[in-house]
Design goal:
The complex is a heterodimer of chains A (about 150) and B (about 300). With about 150 residues, chain A is of the alpha+beta class. Chain A is built from 3 helices and 9 strands. Chain A is globular, with a radius of gyration of 16 Å. Chain B is of the alpha/beta class. Chain B has 2 domains: about 130 residues, Aspartate/ornithine carbamoyltransferase (Rossmann fold), CATH 3.40.50; about 150 residues, 3-Layer(aba) Sandwich (Rossmann fold), CATH 3.40.50.1370. In chain B, about 35% of the residues lie in helices and about 15% in strands. Chain B has 10 helices and 9 strands. Classes of the chains: A alpha+beta (about 150), B alpha/beta (about 300).
């Protein structure tokens, strides 16, 4: 099988080991469709991977990820690794990890949930990891991957 | 047992429920006697939605234990109309009293109140989510009237929107009751609630057939089917007839089967059924008092 070659970036982030097919959702999370429409990106999808079968890769020039973005990525792609690149070198490498609870990261999908009316941080408890299932600790409704992705 | 807030039946385990039921039994036995265990304590009843039984039974429970009551019965008379947040309302009210009972139209309101309040908060209904003291009194009624909790229980009616049915099913599943869910098409229990029940070691079956299910049941828990859930009034009339408990539907019932209903009923149970030995829904209302006395005593530290 031919090796996939992607140009190295100077400064920015490489998100590797993204669950196959989830790269477009990762792009939504890191805001390239809204806040950073001109970001220089490299996206590889369904690349053969020894560990995962297939994986996606996203490279973003000139941008390092915020903590809540990493939390969101962990929801849809729990095995992702984040590499921070400075001057063409990997300066930091970390695995995303799905936290037990997510605070202030998502909006509750239930329109009648009190968190959609009062100024308060939402709290979601991770009930199941794969497929992801979150429970709002206020209204107790659950959210599936489909409902979560809608928010990105 | 330490019990600060009562927000959701999901926060409870078997031991906690058993303990509350045991204290409720003590309260029931002592109902006629003088009880001043909450003397000097004040309960705030914040009802932002209508209620008859829940509010009256909390107030009666407090009075019977020698305590006092303050409260609001509609948000129109409070600073909420001026735009005050629920958080600020709770912070204000808690400085006047020792515990808060809250009913609110939004799901999660009671949890929010408990998170900001230093004093105990009891959920008396948050939107379509939870009504835990109703569940506790339902469990108490089943224990007292059907002789135990590991029974064959049918939940009948609107199982999609009815909060009482969801939390009662959860508590019953915890105790290993055999549960039959009987509802019209379109008002079935949500898949995620059923998935939750299936985590417990119990049998759950779903059907649209009321008459065929009656012979096996020890407890028939009937809930109201709300007209506004049906876009077509004709469809409502059909469904209403098919899920009504009458003397005829009860012909095949076990001799000692009991009928419960969280009330108010509209016409899910015909009035002549009230005179049969099966009807226990007014007894259920009565049990609300000792159960709420137990709950108030526990959260305010008068009972351990």
């Amino acid at each position: 099988m031919k090796e996939v070659k992607v140009k190295r970036i100077k400064n920015g982030t490489v998100i590797d080991h993204i669950t196959g097919g989830q790269a477009l959702n990762v792009l939504q999370i890191i805001g390239v469709t809204k806040e950073y429409p001109k970001a220089v990106l490299t996206v590889a999808m369904n690349v053969p991977s020894k560990k995962m079968g297939v994986k996606d890769i996203v490279k973003v020039e000139g941008r390092e990820l915020k903590a809540d973005e990493v939390d969101k990525i962990s929801l849809i792609s729990p095995e992702s690794t984040i590499n921070i690149i400075r001057d063409h070198e990997v300066k930091e490498k970390k695995n995303v990890s799905l936290p037990k609870t997510l605070e202030g990261v998502l909006v509750c999908d239930n329109p009648n949930c009190i968190t959609n009316f009062e100024k308060t941080k939402t709290i979601f408890v991770v009930e199941e990891k794969s497929p992801i299932k979150l429970r709002c600790s206020y209204c107790e409704r659950t959210m599936s991957e489909k409902e979560i992705i809608k928010q990105f | 047992m330490e019990l600060h807030d009562i927000i959701s039946i999901r926060d409870f385990n078997k031991a906690k429920i058993n303990h509350i039921l045991k204290i409720s039994e003590d309260m029931e036995k002592r109902l006629g006697r003088k009880n001043n265990s909450l003397r000097g304590k004040i309960l705030a009843c914040l009802f932002f939605e209508p209620s008859t039984r829940t509010r009256l039974s909390f107030e009666t429970a407090m009075e019977r234990m020698g305590g006092g009551i303050i409260g609001v019965s509609e948000s129109g008379t409070t600073s909420i109309v001026k735009g005050e947040s629920l958080k600020d309302t709770i912070k204000t009210v808690e400085s006047y009293c020792d515990a808060i009972v809250i009913r609110h139209p939004r799901e999660g309101a009671a949890r929010l109140a408990a998170n900001v309040s230093e004093i105990p908060v009891i959920n008396a209904g948050d939107g379509s989510n939870q009504h835990p003291t109703q569940t506790l009194l339902d469990m108490y009624t089943i224990k007292r009237e059907a002789g135990g909790l590991k029974k064959e229980v049918a939940l009948i009616g609107d199982l999609k929107y009815g909060r009482t049915a969801h939390s009662l099913a959860y508590a019953l599943a915890m105790f290993g009751a055999k549960i039959t869910l009987i509802s019209p098409k379109g008002l079935e229990m949500p898949v995620e609630v059923v998935a939750d029940l299936e985590k417990f070691n119990t049998t759950i079956s779903e059907t649209n057939d009321l008459e065929g299910s009656i012979p096996g049941c020890d407890v028939l828990y009937v809930t109201r089917i709300q007209k506004e859930r049906f876009p077509d009034p004709e469809e409502y009339e059909k469904v209403k007839g098919a899920y009504k408990i009458t003397l005829q539907t009860l012909e095949s019932a076990k001799r000692d089967a009991i009928i419960l209903h969280p009330l108010p009923r509209i016409d899910e149970i015909s009035p002549e059924v009230d005179l049969t030995k099966h009807a226990r829904y007014f007894k259920q209302v009565y049990y609300g008092l000792p159960v709420r006395m137990a709950v108030l005593g526990l959260v305010m530290g008068a009972i351990s």
